[in-house]
Specification:
The complex is a heterodimer. Chain A has helices spanning 7-54, 87-110, 117-136, 140-158, 165-196, 201-206, 213-230, 238-242, 248-257, 262-269, 271-274, 278-299, 305-326, 329-356, 374-388, 394-409, 411-436, 453-456, 463-478, 498-501, 512-537, 549-552, 557-602, 610-632; strands spanning 64-74, 77-85. Chain A is mainly alpha-helical. A two-stranded antiparallel sheet of chain A has the order 1-2. In chain A, α3 (117-136) runs antiparallel to α4 and α12 runs antiparallel to α13 (305-326). The termini of chain A are far apart. Chain B is mostly helical. Chain B has a single domain (5-93), classed as Helix Hairpins. In chain B, α1 runs antiparallel to α2 and α2 (29-54) runs antiparallel to α3 (57-87). Chain B is elongated, with a radius of gyration of 17 Å. The model of chain B has no long low-confidence stretch (mean pLDDT 89). The chains are: A mainly alpha, B mainly alpha. Chains A and B meet through α24 of A and α1 of B.
Chain lengths: 633, 101
C-alpha cells in the first residue's frame, strides 16, 4: 500500500504532460476535468498512504524513503530522486492534494470561456506536481527542484493574463523577489554538503550535533532567507500583494493555501537543525511576529478585496513563523492546514463575488450581496469567523495554539501576536461588512461597466464553483478538531507529528487554568476586533481617518525599494550603457577608423602604371646596393 | 690570351642597365618585355662569369634555373600581350592602369 507514494507527484506530472500535448484538442471543459482527475488521484493515493502509516505503530516505523533512481551520482555527492514519507510530509501532501483538487474543480467553472483555458490547467497541474516534489523530496536538492518549480508556475500563473501590463510586471516582480531569496537556499545546500558530505535529510539530521554551531546557525538562517522570499515575510513581502493580478483560483491555491506555506514547511523540515540554533530561532520568531503585525495593519486599509486577503495571508504566515521560532512546529502546521482551509475558502468566495459582479474587485462598490449570493455569503461567513478567531472555529484553536506557546517563551512577541489577532478580526469584519451587508453600492458603478439591468445583477456561481466552497466551509468549521488544546489523547490527529520533531518540539505544558485564561483572552480580543469593525463600517463606507495613505500604500514599501534599489540600479545601468557606447564602442570604432584612414592614404601609391612600379623597384634596388657598398667599405 | 673576368662583369652591368632603362622609358609592352629578357640574361652572364672566376659550379647551375623561369615567364607574358593586342590595338603599357587604387 505504501509503495505507491511516488505516484503522488507523478500523477499530476502525467496530467501536465497530457495537457501540454493534447490540451488544445481536449479544450473546454475536458482539459479541466483531466487536470482535476489527476490531482484527485493524487489525493486518493495520499489518503491511502495516510491510512497505511496510521496502521503502523508510532515512531521510526512511520518514516521511510523510497528511491526511484540516483539522479546525480558524482563521487561523494549522491543525489537521489527519492521520496521521504513521514507524518510531516503526509500531512502536507494530504491538504495540498485535497485543496488542489477542490480548486481544480472550482477552476473548471471559473475559467470557463477563457481563451487560454487548457493552458491554465497545464500550469496548474505542473504546479501541483512541483509542490508535491517539494514536500516529498528526501534531500535538499530535490526540494530545491520543487521549490523552483512552484516559483516558475507561480510566475506563469500570476502573469496568466499577460495582455495586462500590471499582470505581466506582477509576475516578474514575484519571480525576482523569489530568485533573490533562492540564493539563500543554494548557499545553504553548499554549506550543508560541505559540513556533512550529504544532502539527504535523514543523514544530515543524524549529524546535526557534529556541525559547528556557527555553521548550523548559518544554514538555518540561509534557509530562512529562502523561506522569507517564498512565504512573503519582511522584507520580501511586497510581491504577494501584486500577485493578486493572477486568476482568483491561483491566488487561492498558490498564494494562500500551498506555495507560500512552503517556507514554513521547510523550516519545520529542518527542525532538528533549528533546535540546535537558538539564535536563528529568535530571528525567525521576531520576523514572523513583525510581519504578522505589519501586514495586518496594511490589510486594514486596502480597497481591493483580494489585496486585503493577500495581506491577511502574509500576516497569517507571520504567525506560522512565530510558531516555528518558538519551536512549536506542530502549532505551525496546525495553523498552516487550518489557514489553507479558510483562506482558500475566502479566496474562492472572493472569486465567486468577483465573478458575480462581473470583475468588480473594489470593496467600496460591493455591498448587500447576502441577498443575491446566499451560498457564497454563508460559506464566506464561515471563513470570516474562522480567520477572525471566533470559537469554536478552526482559526481560534490554531491561532490559540501558537499564542499559548509564544506566551510561554517570548511574552513580548505574544503581545504582538495578540494585537495582530485583534487587527485580524477587525479587517476581516470590515471586508465582510463592506461586501455582504449594507446597501447595493454596485448599482452606482459608472455607466459602461454595466451592460444592462438584467446582466448586472449579481448571480450565484455554478455547482462546480459552489461545491468547493461548501466542502472548504465545512473543513474551516471543524478544522479545530485536528489539534485541540491540551492534546486530548482520544482525538488529536496532528499529534502524530510529534515523533517527527522529537526533542526539537517545544510544547508549553501549561496548566488547564492558564490555557482557559489564554483562550478566553483570545476570544475576547477577537470578538472585540469584530465588534469595533462592525460598529465602524456597517454605517459608513468612507472613513479616511481609518484608511491612512501610509497603510493604503503599504508603508510606501514599493517606493522605498524603488528609491533605495530600483533607481540606483537604473543609474548604474545607465552609466554602464554610457561606458559601453563611449569607451568600448569608441575603442572598436577607433581601430576601424584608423585602418580605414591608413588604407585611404596608402591606396594613392597604387597608380596602375607598371613603369612606376618598376621605377620603385629600381630605386629600391639601387638604394639597397648603395647601402651595402657603404657598409663594405 | 684570355679576356679578364672583369670585362664580362662590366658587360653584364651595362646590359642590365640598358634593360632597366629601357623598361622605364619605353611604353610598348613588347619592347618592355624584351628589356626584361635583357636584364635576365645580363644576370646570367654575371653568374657564369663568377662561376668561372671563383671556380664554383653553383653559378652555372643557377643559370639553368633562370633560363627555365624566363622561358615560363615568356610563355605567360606573351600570352597576356597577345590577349591585350586582340582586345585593343596599339595599346601602350600606360593605358593599362585599370588596377589603380
Amino acid at each position: 500500500m505504501l509503495h505507491a507514494a511516488y505516484l503522488m507527484p507523478l500523477l499530476p506530472l502525467a496530467g501536465f504532460v497530457v495537457l501540454a500535448g493534447f490540451g488544445r484538442r481536449l479544450g473546454d471543459p475536458w482539459a479541466g476535468w483531466v487536470g482535476t482527475a489527476t490531482v484527485g488521484g493524487s489525493f486518493v493515493v495520499a489518503c491511502v498512504t495516510y491510512a497505511g502509516l496510521l496502521g503502523r505503530p508510532s515512531g521510526p516505523s512511520r518514516e521511510f524513503t523510497q528511491t526511484l533512481f540516483t539522479w546525480i551520482p558524482v563521487g561523494g555527492l549522491q543525489v537521489k530522486a527519492a521520496v521521504l514519507v513521514d507524518p510531516l510530509s503526509v500531512t502536507m501532501v494530504l491538504f495540498v492534494t485535497g485543496i488542489s483538487a477542490l480548486i481544480h474543480l472550482y477552476s473548471v467553472g471559473y475559467m470557463k470561456g477563457d481563451q487560454d483555458y487548457p493552458k491554465f490547467f497545464v500550469y496548474l497541474n505542473l504546479f501541483v506536481a512541483s509542490m508535491l516534489i517539494l514536500v516529498l523530496a528526501d534531500n535538499l536538492v530535490l526540494t530545491f527542484v520543487g521549490w523552483e518549480g512552484v516559483g516558475l508556475c507561480s510566475y506563469w500563473l500570476i502573469s496568466f493574463w499577460f495582455g495586462r501590463d500590471t499582470a505581466a510586471s506582477a509576475g516578474q516582480k514575484a519571480f525576482l523577489y523569489n530568485r533573490l531569496a533562492d540564493v539563500g537556499f543554494l548557499l545553504a545546500i553548499f554549506l550543508v554538503f560541505d559540513e556533512t558530505k550529504s544532502v539527504d535529510y535523514l543523514p544530515v539530521f543524524a549529524q546535526a550535533s557534529h556541525i559547528g554551531s556557527g555553521a548550523r546557525t548559518a544554514i538555518c538562517l540561509l534557509l530562512f532567507v529562502a523561506a522569507v522570499g517564498k512565504s512573503a515575510q519582511i522584507p520580501l513581502f511586497p510581491w504577494l500583494a501584486d500577485a493578486m493580478e493572477g486568476p482568483t483560483p491561483v491566488s487561492a491555491l498558490i498564494h494562500a493555501a500551498t506555495m507560500v506555506t512552503a517556507g514554513v514547511y521547510l523550516m519545520c523540515r529542518i527542525s532538528p537543525l533549528l533546535a540546535l540554533a537558538p539564535g536563528a530561532r529568535v530571528v525567525v520568531a521576531s520576523i514572523g511576529a513583525a510581519t504578522a503585525f505589519v501586514a495586518a495593519t496594511i490589510a486594514c486599509a486596502q480597497q481591493d478585496i483580494k489585496k486585503v486577503l493577500a495581506y491577511s495571508t502574509v500576516s497569517q504566515l507571520g504567525y506560522m513563523f512565530l510558531a516555528v521560532g518558538t519551536g512549536a512546529y506542530e502549532a505551525a502546521i496546525f495553523l498552516m492546514v487550518a489557514h489553507a482551509f479558510f483562506k482558500a475558502l475566502l479566496f474562492l468566495g472572493a472569486g465567486s463575488v468577483i465573478h458575480g459582479l462581473h470583475d468588480e474587485q473594489n470593496l467600496k462598490r460591493m455591498g448587500n450581496l447576502r441577498r443575491y449570493m446566499k451560498l457564497t455569503f454563508v460559506s464566506f461567513g464561515v471563513g470570516w469567523l474562522a480567520i477572525a478567531g471566533i470559537p469554536p472555529l478552526s482559526g481560534f484553536f490554531a491561532k490559540g495554539d501558537i499564542l499559548d506557546n509564544a506566551f510561554a517563551r517570548y511574552p513580548a512577541l505574544w503581545v504582538v501576536g495578540l494585537v495582530t489577532a485583534a487587527l485580524t478580526a477587525y479587517y476581516m469584519t470590515r471586508l465582510f461588512v463592506l461586501t455582504f451587508l449594507g446597501e447595493d453600492r454596485w448599482r452606482q458603478r459608472p455607466a459602461g461597466a454595466v451592460h444592462d439591468g438584467e446582466e448586472a445583477a449579481p448571480h450565484e456561481s455554478p455547482w462546480v464553483m459552489a461545491l468547493p466552497l461548501v466542502v472548504l466551509g465545512g473543513l474551516a468549521l471543524v478544522g479545530g478538531l485536528l489539534d485541540l488544546p491540551g492534546h486530548h489523547p482520544g482525538f488529536a490527529p496532528l499529534g502524530w507529528l510529534a515523533p517527527v520533531f522529537g526533542s526539537a518540539l517545544y510544547d508549553a505544558h501549561q496548566s488547564g487554568g492558564t490555557l482557559w485564561a489564554l483562550g478566553i483572552v483570545d476570544a475576547v480580543v477577537a470578538v472585540g476586533g469584530l465588534g469595533v469593525a462592525y460598529s465602524v463600517w456597517s454605517r459608513r463606507t468612507e472613513r479616511p481617518a481609518l484608511e491612512p495613505m501610509v497603510l493604503q500604500k503599504s508603508y510606501f514599501i514599493d517606493d522605498i525599494y524603488d528609491a533605495a534599489i530600483g533607481r540606483p540600479s537604473e543609474d548604474l545601468a545607465k552609466m554602464a550603457a554610457v561606458f559601453d557606447t563611449k569607451v568600448i564602442d569608441g575603442a572598436v570604432n577607433g581601430v576601424a577608423r584608423l585602418a580605414r584612414g591608413a588604407g585611404a592614404g596608402l591606396r594613392k601609391i597604387q597608380t596602375g602604371f607598371v613603369r612606376q612600379y618598376a621605377l620603385g623597384i629600381v630605386v629600391g634596388a639601387v638604394a639597397l646596393l648603395a647601402y651595402m657598398l657603404t657598409r663594405v667599405s | 690570351m684570355s679576356i679578364p673576368g672583369e670585362w664580362y662583369l662590366a658587360l653584364g652591368a651595362v646590359l642590365f642597365s640598358i634593360g632597366a632603362l629601357g623598361l622605364l622609358v619605353r611604353r610598348n609592352v613588347l619592347v618592355m618585355f624584351m628589356c626584361i629578357e635583357l636584364m635576365l640574361n645580363a644576370a646570367n652572364l654575371t653568374f657564369v662569369t663568377f662561376a668561372r672566376m671563383l671556380n664554383d659550379i653553383g653559378g652555372q647551375a643557377l643559370v639553368f634555373f633562370v633560363l627555365v623561369v624566363a622561358a615560363a615567364e615568356v610563355v605567360v607574358g606573351l600570352g597576356i600581350v597577345v590577349a591585350i593586342f586582340r582586345r585593343r590595338r596599339g595599346t601602350t603599357a600606360d593605358d593599362l592602369h585599370l588596377l589603380k587604387g
